[in-house]
Amino acid sequence: MNYPNGMRKRVKKKPKSSTKIAYSNRGMSLEEDINVTNSYYLETNRAVIHKKPTPIQIVNVNYPKRSAAVITEAYFKQASTTDYNGIYQGKHIDFEAKETKNKTSFPLANIHEHQIRHMNAILKHGGISFFIIRFKEHDETYLYPGEKIVYFWEQQNNDGRKSVPYTSIQKDGVLIPFKYQARIDYLSVVDQLYF
Amino acid sequence: MNYPNGMRKRVKKKPKSSTKIAYSNRGMSLEEDINVTNSYYLETNRAVIHKKPTPIQIVNVNYPKRSAAVITEAYFKQASTTDYNGIYQGKHIDFEAKETKNKTSFPLANIHEHQIRHMNAILKHGGISFFIIRFKEHDETYLYPGEKIVYFWEQQNNDGRKSVPYTSIQKDGVLIPFKYQARIDYLSVVDQLYF
Lengths: 195, 195
What we know:
Cofactor (chains A, B): Mg(2+)
Distance between the termini of chain A: 39 Å
Largest sheet of chain A: 6 strands, mixed
GO molecular function (chains A, B): crossover junction DNA endonuclease activity; magnesium ion binding; nucleic acid binding
CATH class of chain A: Alpha Beta
Number of strands of chain A: 10
EC number (chains A, B): 3.1.21.10
Main location (chains A, B): cytoplasm
Subcellular location (chains A, B): Cytoplasm
Oligomer: homodimer
CATH topology of chain A: Trna Endonuclease, Chain: A, domain 1
Helix content of chain A: 25-40%
CATH architecture of chain A: 3-Layer(aba) Sandwich
Shape of chain A: globular
Strand order of the largest sheet of chain A: 1-4-5-7-8-10
């Protein structure tokens, strides 16, 4: 059996002997973890949540005979919304996921203004919106409510602070448990915060 | 003022003298009409509904010095969900839009099985899911409930019928009015059917 990125070694180091919840998940990127989690949620009928495709501006396409169209020139576009959305317990869920190497804060430079506008609109229409933030150096992944991110974003113009302190994320966010199948089991945190 | 695709002529032909609702909209593609409509809904805080980007498999990217990354080889992937989703009145909305030149039926070959599975899942989780179907030859655009499409899809294996009859779409669907700003004002039909 092949484990990605040295997972095997980790499994050996941490035998599942205890009932302690693991919050650690070295190796896979946050995006991979969330994709695996969403697939698991979908297969188990827990929720229908997908990552949106990366927006791309297509400039040139070739149509070779007898084979698939080839895009030969295209550019990455800036996303106008968040990366993930879907439905859970009848509610609209919308979130963005970000990793940072920073230890003491989450830099707001990671976010675009239209993403904040989008989250704000989702919240006003009665949806659930949040960030999943991974502090790579702490090996911790948090669910942090959209309202809080919007608050810090708007505060930028007042106090000039360009980041969300790690302490605020610890206080107002919730650490997401790492599980074997629902690797980043964020819906367990959504249950806790919103239902 | 520039009107796209000969709109001007149409406007001249149909002065807004009556209170009759127009259901006709020659000229723009269904996708363009829906995008314009969604922008209008967003600007007026009516709903937050976006088209998902086209899924693309990127094979090669060049990073020229001092300029943006260029994708030099990529392929279109099949969508695993529907094209549009978002939130309206606190409810999750999910739909697909299709045009057909057929006059008597909507061919199911226009739909992929995973799209049907996706719609089914959305419906089971309490979302609103439907098709927007334009019959180009009739110059009519209908909202047709997801449940009905799923029914016809599943019937294929029983009666072998590979399309949804135009008569069923007239009976169980609702003609979407054409308006100046919300060009394809499908939320007026959603109000009527779901709220």
